[in-house]
Amino acid sequence: MGTTKNDIERVLWKACDSFRGKIDSSRYKDYILSMLFVKYLSDVCIATRERYMHQYAGDMQRVARAMSRETFVLDEKSTFDYLYANRNDAEIGQKINIALNAIEEHNSGKLRNVFRAIDFNSQVDFGEKKEKNATLKNLLEDFHDLDLRPEVLESNDIIGDAYEYMIANFASDAGKKGGEFFTPSQVSKLVAALVSPKENDRIYDPTCGSGGLLLKAYAQANTKKVAIYGQEKNMQTWALCSMNMFLHGIDDARIWQGDTLSNPQNLEDDRLMKFQCVVANPPFSLDKWDSGFLPEVTSGSKKPKMSADLDIYHLSLIHIS
């Protein structure tokens, strides 16, 4: 029997239970979704290696050469299976960090810095070593029986859909602050329909959060012949977006990290890039949205909060062709 979206969601909720009461959901979402990502990469790598082993009749040299040309590369100590086998190790948190760092280094073109903001060895989040090790052991056991090999998945979209589902639930738990990294699906679909992207369009979100708006616009285009661009200020949210794109099969998306207003990175030949479609859910109601790039206000006056009326500052950074 294949792996369904419900199977993945069930494992994700079980992983949440391993953290509840110990770490706030605004933090443990990063650990759970990162582990889902590692499990996916590992299972795809295993399935690909098995296919090459059969194709090349066990010729390890040819298998290794073929694996090196794949979309991503994992060494043995970066796989989920290695981490699971070492789940009782006294330094399991550090072993996970080392594995994540190796994944970044071996796939720097697509996954550079994607795990930079997460620390599985954090005493602040996990407490003392005994408590930390018990939590991480439970997390690895939660994911162990989940089979994410492509050939057993119910459909190609279910991992990305489950990832989005969990982001939505974490945003709901976070209440008002959830809007910092997630736009409700219904709103995203409406915005995507309004901009109506077409084949060969470049689609951009200057405040992309975890990437939901970009994914809806990509789906609305109904073609893979579109280019996806985005920028996100929050490092942890940028990492979620990068993994989200990868899990949805958009591994050529260009997602930059940084403040779009003070440090726009959508540059091409030293000029701001032009896009056929721009989608955004800007962070309205921010007090210090100017980040120091606007002149100081005169004495006795007050800087306005970010609002729709101020969105000219966003539009000045975006050239729509």
Write a concise synopsis of the structure shown.
The chain is an alpha/beta fold. The chain is built from 13 helices and eight strands. It folds into two domains: 5-176, Ferritin, CATH 1.20.1260; 181-320, Rossmann fold.
How would you describe this structure to a colleague?
This protein has 321 residues and is α/β, with parallel strands linked by helices. The protein folds into 2 domains: 5-176, Ferritin, CATH 1.20.1260; 181-320, Rossmann fold, CATH 3.40.50. Helices cover 48% and strands 7% of the residues. It has 13 helices and 8 strands. The chain has helices spanning 5-19, 25-55, 60-67, 80-85, 92-106, 108-111, 123-126, 129-144, 158-174, 185-195, 212-221, 235-247, 312-315, and strands at 202-205, 227-232, 254-257, 267-268, 271-272, 274-275, 277-278, 319-320. The chain has a 4-stranded parallel sheet, with helices on one face. Helix 1 (5-19) packs antiparallel against helix 8 (129-144), helix 2 crosses helix 8 and helix 2 packs parallel to helix 12 (235-247). The model has no long low-confidence stretch (mean pLDDT 86).
> Stretches where pLDDT falls below 50 for ≥5 residues?
none
Integer-rounded radius of gyration: 21 Å
Q: What is the average of the pLDDT values? A: 86
Distance between the termini: 48 Å
In CATH terms, the superfamily of the largest domain is N6 adenine-specific DNA methyltransferase, N-terminal domain
Strand order of the largest sheet: 3-2-1-7
Number of strands: 8
The proportion of strand residues reads 5-15%
Determine the oligomeric state from the structure.
Answer: single chain
Element order: H for helix, E for strand: HHHHHHHHHHEHEHEEEEEHE
- Tell me the helix content: 40-55%
- Supply the CATH class of the largest domain: Mainly Alpha
Q: Sum up the overall morphology in one term.
A: globular
The description of the largest β-sheet is: 4 strands, parallel
